[in-house]
Amino acid sequence: MDDNQLQDRLATLEERVGLLEDQLAIHRLINSWGPAVDTGNAEVAGSLFAEDGLLESDMSYLIGPAAVSAMVKAEGHQSLIRDGSAHIPAFPIVDIEGDQARATGYTRVYRHTDDGYEVWRVSANHWEFRRTHDGWRVARRTNHVIDGGPEANKILARAFDPKR
Fold first, then answer.
1. From CA 3, how far away is CA 9, in angstroms rounded?
2. Distances from the Cα of 6 to the Cαs of 9, 11, 17, 76, in angstroms?
3. Long-range contacts for 54-61 (Cβ within 8 Å, ≥24 apart)?
4. Among candidate residues 35, 141, 159, 146, the one with its CA nearest the CA of residue 105
5. What average pLDDT does the structure give for the chain?
6. What is the pLDDT of residues 117-141, one digit of tens each?
């Protein structure tokens, strides 16, 4: 193997390792959401989002870290925490293109009851990320409850056709 071949292989390896590191960082962002909101850590929940990041769902429309933090501090969310909640993401499908990325998957929210736990909400999620000087941040998260209507299916279909 000559020096050019070795340099090409090294460059390919560096590119692949960089992609794996980006995927791991994105999975960490997604998986940080549940522990942050279930413990009421509004600062961490907000910090996952870019300054103009959008959290859009059938329940809310929030722009920026301060709005996300305020939602976590609000009485509706605090009562969910007091009941005992667990936001559990499924392993999403992630696609990365340079400094932009997207992920599509499911989230389940469990709520504690006298009989144990019940599934309170199952949602389709589409996340959009961008790399910032502070690392990857959520640019947009679209979340819709799976209720038999077309909205959740449209979100899930984006895993295979991002233009949808």
1. 10
2. 5, 9, 16, 58
3. 54/139, 54/140, 54/141, 55/138, 55/140, 55/141, 55/143, 56/140, 56/141, 56/142, 56/143, 57/123, 57/141, 57/142, 57/143, 57/144, 58/143, 58/144, 58/145, 58/151
4. 159
5. 95
6. 999 999 999 999 999 999 999 999 9
Amino acid at 148: G
User: How many Å is the Cα radius of gyration of the chain?
Assistant: 18
**pLDDT tens-digit map of 76-97:** 999 999 999 999 999 999 999 9
Beta carbons of 65 and 51 less than 8 angstroms apart: yes
Half-sphere exposure of 124 (CA within 13 A, CB side): 15
Look at the block and give the residue holding tokens 């999620």.
Answer: 125
Is 163 domain-assigned? no
| The total number of structural domains that make up the chain | 1
Q: Look at residue 164 and tell me if it is in a domain.
A: no
| Structural domain includes residue 52 | yes
- C-beta of residue 126 within 8 angstroms of C-beta of residue 57: no
